[in-house]
Amino acid sequence: MSTAPARVFVARLVGLPIFDPVGEQVGKVRDLVVAVRTEVHQPRVLGMVAEVFGRRRIFVPMTRVTNIDSGQVYTTGLLNMRRFEQRPSETLVIGQMLDRTVRIPSTGVTGTVYDVGIEQARNRDWVVSRVAVKEHASKGLRRRSNRGQTHVVEWRDVEGLSRREEAQGATHLIAALNEMRPADAANMIHDLPPERRSAVVAALDDERLADVLEELSEEDQVEILANLDSERAADVLEEMSPDDAADLIADLPPETAATLLELMEPEEAEDVRRLMSYAEETAGAMMTPEPVILGPDATVADALAHVRNPELTPALAALVYVCRPPLETPTGKFLGVAHIQRLLREPPSSLVAGALDDTMASLRPEASIDGVAAHLATYNLVAAPVVDENGHLLGAVTVDDLLDHMLPEGWRDRARPGDDREEVTG
User: Fold this and answer.
1) Do 365 and 277 sit in the same domain of this protein?
2) pLDDT tens digit string along 26-45?
3) 3-state percent breakdown (helix, strand, coil) of the chain, nearest 5
4) Is the distance from CB of 73 to CB of 18 less than 8 angstroms?
5) Is residue 424, in this structure, part of any structural domain at all?
6) What 8-state DSSP symbol labels residue 133?
């Protein structure tokens, strides 16, 4: 590894792209796998957990890594594409080592691990060489000035790296997860051991947990929700998009579902109940009841302000739905849609109604998945209105809603785990 830096801190590696020898990106770094045997044996870095196409996580041995610099990781290009399966003797640095309580005997300081430094030994193996520790706040007055102080020390000067904790915190892991996209955070949470996952779920705020739940498999969603108290579970469901909340509640036991719906805010529960009233695998069941809806007297500037909302998906931000009052679904008479591309060419002070596309065919709530797919494909759309027999807008179906329902069950984790980490592909 000719140009590798002397030392790399793992938290800075997470999210870096991984390239093959010809410069094509093959994945991203998600974690490092180390072998922590005892307090007297230097922990050896076994490899990286990389996320490749399809959100699959694979194991990249350090022997396949040819270079690490400040912005990327290079490999030999020969990678085992089987799904990563953690072994009992292995520890994930980000997933399990961060927030571990350790002690520095020379100073008597106790704190939590917030980063780990690795470097190459003389035999070319990568090893843990430094541990970054954030000191616990002192209860007394003597060390008050050192509250929250950080220390970066040699690995041998720390006790507790090899000890598993039953009640390990999650502060620094949460900080790492909050830097990731929800889908990436969901993948990491899926791979955590059960006790670590529980600590992370407890520490995430409701909005972030809702974002992550939407990206997890149905099995993971149900398991996580079942371990929350009913009040918090209802709060998290309120933060989810209504269509995702409806899908999740439909997977719960009927008594649990009824309890959570009663605990939710009435308006949020009403949207979910309405979605659950439609037959499965129809436009009504998969639609989003909260697209961007404006009245005919709204200006182009109003419309552009609404679609700038960072919480909107690109598909939902592509169209503005123009209706007569009331503007909450089911709305008054649906008048048509305004395409964001058209609005960008109009004067901000002009009315949205002047840029209306009233020729777009709408979907009925009973339309099948195949019918929705054909409709979007025929008209080259990323979203389409769902309208009832009286011309009231009920919601919108987006291409991402469609894909979630068309992909086979368990698509998020379709790769089969394997034991042979030496099987490679170029």
Assistant:
1) no
2) 999 999 999 987 777 899 99
3) 35, 25, 40
4) yes
5) no
6) E
